[in-house]
């Protein structure tokens, strides 16, 4: 299922665990398209997450998504958070030496762009929302 189906069917997907699986699979495929390895994922908040909907732990290479957030979030917010955390994993794999604030800004700004492209693409009935249909983004992946 492409992300467009996930966005359209968000309210019918079911419990947060099913939403988590949809987001994890999409972001892993998206990262793979960009030349990154999939990170580990947890559907439980990280002890240091402090109320944030998601967190990437660079020490373990794990993205944590809060199940309460996934249960209450609208589809576009959940997709944006998952992509944002996935970008943290990509930045980590690329070995960018960014300060915490710079990395947060980079992941946020790129994540918003990706999310907006997805939403706009899904408004076109010929788009699937498959990661292979996504544009390339302005960074050098580990493979380049």
Layout of strands and helices, then pairs:
Layout: H1 3-13, H2 16-33, E1 40-42, E2 54-57, E3 62-65, H3 67-72, H4 75-94, H5 100-122
Parallel strand pairs: 1-3
Antiparallel strand pairs: 2-3
Helix pairs in contact: 1-2, 2-4, 4-5
What does this structure look like?
It is globular and about 40 Å long. It has a three-stranded mixed beta sheet. With 144 residues, the chain is mainly alpha-helical. Helix 1 (3-13) packs antiparallel against helix 2 (16-33) and helix 4 (75-94) packs across helix 5. Residues 139-144 have low confidence and may be disordered. Helices cover 54% and strands 8% of the residues. The chain has helices at 3-13, 16-33, 67-72, 75-94, 100-122; strands spanning 40-42, 54-57, 62-65. The N and C termini lie far apart (29 Å).
Q: Care to give the gist of this entry?
A:
54% of the residues lie in helices and 8% in strands. It has helices at residues 3-13, 16-33, 67-72, 75-94, 100-122; strands at 40-42, 54-57, 62-65.
